[in-house]
Amino acid sequence: MTRVAAPTGKLTDLETAVLRCAAEGATIEATARQLGKSMPAVQDTRHRLMGKLGATSLVNAVHLAWQAGILRRERHGDHAGYAAHLYRREDPCDLCKAGERKYRNSRRKQTEEQAA
């Protein structure tokens, strides 16, 4: 088992966004389009973040980021996603707010059915 090297620098918001796109399998072109950047800018950002993580490839960078906790699996659109936002002291996104409303309505309905 290999040891996880500590990142040598804090990733910028752009580097984190590019890394997240890479983790989702997006190409350089798709990442550039999604982030509103040029393809050379995305390539430069990929190389910079790989250096900061001490990675030998983009796949290795994604792996190291998961191990270091830089990337995390996030749920959206349900009660757990809403709770995760609150746990991180963030304002829940609209999708999670809608999921929380749906969850609360279903719980309310269950309670009413049990009372009847």
Question: What key attributes describe this structure?
Answer:
single chain; Arc Repressor Mutant, subunit A; mainly alpha; 116 residues
Main sheet? none
Using the CA coordinates, give the radius of gyration: 19 Å
Number of helices: 6
Number of strands: 0
Gross geometry: elongated
Order of helices and strands: HHHHHH
End-to-end CA span: 58 Å
CATH topology descriptor of the largest domain = Arc Repressor Mutant, subunit A
User: Quick check: average pLDDT?
Assistant: 88
Structural class: mainly alpha
Uncertain segments of ≥5 residues (pLDDT<50)?
none
CATH class of the largest domain: Mainly Alpha
What is the CATH superfamily of the largest domain?
Answer: Winged helix-like DNA-binding domain superfamily/Winged helix DNA-binding domain
Name given to the CATH architecture of the largest domain: Orthogonal Bundle
Please estimate the helix content: 55-70%
